[in-house]
Amino acid sequence: MSGLSPQTLEDAFEPKPALRNAATIGLQAGIVGAFVSAVQNALGSHSRGAAGFLTRSGGTIGTFAAMGAAFAFTESAVANQRETNDALNGIAGGCAAGFLAGLKSRSIPVALGSCAVIGAAMGTFDYAGEIAGRSKEQKEEKRKKFFKPVPQPSHHASE
């Protein structure tokens, strides 16, 4: 075996297939969009019947699929470029998906705001998942790096 320790082997970066991830997640998000479109069609009052699923609210399907694909592709591409798996990849993917959602409203300020909100949400989610998936020793080490040590009061014997 090589001279790498088991810890180094666990942390070694493995490239992500960006296009395959984008296609898979885009398809899954499109299925969720179809469900949302069906609910919109069922709850709305119109005279189009079941065809309204595609004609009236069908844009929802494409929007969900595009957001999912944009998220997955961007997250994978950023991870491959940086050669690391961390919360910044999720922030970039969330920003791309949010920007696309904002563009649907045809407003750059809404697109930028959506980028910030969804990017922050995904970054927080990924960061929390990183912390939850670590061993107790790794969590303690990260906590010690983040928080300043509390000074201990010195006890003087005054007797």
Task: Describe the structure in your own words.
The chain is mostly helical and 159 residues long. Helix 2 (18-43) packs antiparallel against helix 4 and helix 5 (87-104) packs antiparallel against helix 6. It has helices spanning 6-11, 18-43, 52-55, 59-82, 87-104, 108-132, 136-146. It contains seven helices and no strands. The longest helix is centred in the N-terminal third of the chain and has 26 residues, at 18-43. The model is unreliable at 1-9 (pLDDT under 50).
Helices and strands in order:
Layout: H1 6-11, H2 18-43, H3 52-55, H4 59-82, H5 87-104, H6 108-132, H7 136-146
Helix pairs in contact: 2-4, 4-5, 5-6
Strand residue content: under 5%
Q: Provide the residue-averaged pLDDT.
A: 78
Order of helices and strands: HHHHHHH
Q: What share of residues is helical? A: over 70%
Largest sheet: none
What does the oligomeric state look like here? single chain
Coarse morphology: elongated
Number of helices: 7
Low-confidence stretches: 1-9
- Gyration radius from CA atoms, angstroms: 23 Å
Secondary-structure-based class equals mainly alpha
Distance between the termini: 62 Å
Number of DSSP-assigned strands? 0
Keywords:
159 residues, 7 helices, mainly alpha, 72% helix
Brief summary of the model shown:
With 159 residues, the protein is mostly helical. The chain is built from seven helices and no strands.
